[in-house]
Design goal:
Blueprint (H helix, E strand, L loop, with lengths): L18 H18 L10 H15 L24 E4 L2 E4 L33 E5 L13 E4 H6 L3 E8 L6 H5 L15 E10 H8 L7 E6 L5 E2 L2 E2 L7 E2 H6 L2 E6 L2 E2 L9 E3 L12 E7 L6 H4 L22 E5 L5 E3 L5 E9 L4 E7 L7 E2 L1 E2 L9 E7 L5 E11 L23 E6 L1
Parallel strand pairs: 3-14, 16-23
Antiparallel strand pairs: 1-2, 3-4, 5-6, 6-11, 7-10, 7-14, 8-9, 11-12, 11-13, 15-17, 17-21, 18-19, 18-22, 20-21, 22-23
Helix pairs in contact: 1-2
Bound molecules: the ligand Nc1nc2c(c(=O)[nH]1)N[C@H]1C(S)=C(S)[C@@H](COP(=O)(O)O)O[C@H]1N2 and molybdenum atom.
Cofactor: Mo-molybdopterin
Keywords: Metal-binding, Molybdenum, Oxidoreductase
Pfam family, one: Mo-co_dimer
Length: 437
């Protein structure tokens, strides 16, 4: 985090009880409006820094009652994480690709990766409310007088079921280092920060209309009920990220079922946002409230995080990330062994945020020659396509398996990805090491 002119609230303090913070926030919000309207000079403060600052101070003053503190030894993830299924990274758990072998198109809930900024809150549907508020609703209801929906209210509305992946923007991040020699920050996921599920829920568009969506609305910002996120000593508030109204009205769900079961605690029970084809951070779990705004919204999750920074990107970063990139993975352990002279069937999956998968080419000789894989799913957007290819290795030794996908938007996986400091959106062909014995 850049140093900020406004002192961050000390962890454990209730910032909203500090009157000076309220004044600062009112001031900052006015400045932000003026600045966006071209009236304020940034006085040497970068756009990124200013946005970060405003987002952090706004968050600190607008919090629902904090959750009770968790015991220090309470695990961040509720479901079992057997080591043959998951690689643990702190509060996160990555699915092992070899564990997906033989599962169907949809990832079983028990196997689905978990990305938690803090820890899974165990909530009850009975007490849960969705609160909608802000200047983008008719009458501009404040946070203290929101439009409310209970769990049963949502379940009573017409539902939609759709298959979609949730994939972390940092999926594949480890390969920036292992394949490209780059130093990047963040969880070193290999390729297992993705899962595909059948999500059932209510279109966000229907709930927004029932809440009194105004024609002036431009952004919506769902916020999670998990604990506030503290990063670099700064309290960034609860996990939240704005979404343009156009996407919110297009295909976003308030999901309460995952593969035919109520959402598991770790995946957002009782209700999560599901934003098809976009980076995972957009799909806010344990959603508690949604700000609907007539002005653009900012949070650290669209200013500091989830933009591309680095020498090859604009000085203040790229636009906030939206669609996921294109990737492929083998349903194999790293260093899997194969008997020479025998016929093997290699299995894998490819997916893209920009369209369906049009073709997949596989190399079993480290990238020298390529053969098209057989596709097993009718390619569809927002989900992966399973594929296979036969292989009869001849000579014992180590080699690399490579898979390169092309999507219906004509994107093909490159040999290298232009790096960014936070290691997002890796899309290069991954070299999967195997041994022939
Ligand atoms: N409230 C809340 N929502 C969240 C997160 C979080 O930590 N808190 N993590 C986000 C990120 S970064 C990702 S990749 C996805 C992961 O969803 P999953 O844990 O169900 O796989 O949830 C997103 N939604
Ligand atoms: Mo993520």
């Amino acid at each position: 985090m850049p140093p900020s002119a406004v002192p961050p609230p000390r962890p454990g303090t209730r910032p909203e009880t500090r009157p000076e913070t309220r004044l600062e926030t009112a001031y900052d919000r006015r400045r932000l409006r003026q600045w966006l309207a071209g009236e304020a000079k940034a006085d040497g403060v970068s756009r990124r820094h200013l946005l970060t600052l405003l987002a952090a101070t706004a968050a600190a003053t607008a919090l629902p009652a904090p959750l009770p503190a968790r015991a220090a030894d309470t695990p961040a993830i509720v479901k079992p994480l057997p080591p043959e299924w998951f690689i643990q990274h702190g509060t996160n758990a990555e699915t092992r690709w070899e564990a997906l072998r033989g599962t169907g198109h949809h990832t079983p809930n028990e196997l689905f990766f978990v990305r938690n900024h803090t820890a899974t809150p165990v909530l009850t549907a009975h007490d849960w409310r969705l609160r909608l508020w802000g200047s983008g609703l008719r009458g501009s209801p404040g946070e203290d007088k929101p439009v409310e929906f209970g769990y049963d209210d949502l379940r009573a509305l017409p539902s939609v079921t759709r298959t979609a992946f949730v994939e972390c923007a940092g999926n594949g991040r480890a390969y920036y280092t292992t394949q490209q020699g780059e130093t990047v920050s963040g969880t070193p996921w290999t390729l297992g920060a993705i899962g595909v599920a059948r999500w059932r829920g209510v279109p966000l568009a229907d709930v927004l209309r029932r809440a009194g969506l105004s024609s002036r609305a431009v952004d919506v910002q769902p916020r999670g009920l998990d604990a506030e996120y503290i990063s670099g000593g700064e309290n960034l508030g609860r996990v939240r990220r704005p979404l343009p109204l156009s996407k919110a009205l297009h295909d976003v769900l308030l999901a309460y079922e995952m593969n035919g079961e109520p959402l598991p605690h770790d995946h957002g029970y009782p209700v999560r946002v599901l934003v098809p084809s976009w980076v995972g951070i957009a799909s806010i779990k344990w959603v508690g409230d949604i700000e609907v705004s007539a002005q653009p919204l900012f949070s650290p999750w669209n200013t500091t995080f989830y933009r591309l920074f680095g020498p090859s990107h604009p000085k203040d970063g790229s636009a906030p990330l939206t669609r996921q990139t294109i990737k492929s993975a083998f349903e194999l352990a790293n260093g899997a062994t194969f008997r020479a002279g025998e016929r093997h069937v290699l299995h894998g999956r490819s997916w893209s945020g920009a369209g369906a998968i049009a073709r997949v080419d596989v190399s079993t000789d480290g990238g020298t020659s390529w053969r098209p894989a057989r596709l097993h799913d009718r390619p569809r957007p927002d989900t992966w396509t399973r594929w296979s290819l036969t292989w009869t290795p001849r000579t014992p030794g180590t080699t690399h398996l490579l898979a390169r996908a092309t999507d219906t938007a004509a994107r093909t996986q490159p040999d290298t990805t232009v790096p960014n400091t936070q290691g997002y959106l890796f899309d290069a062909v991954v070299r999967h090491p195997v041994t022939v014995v």
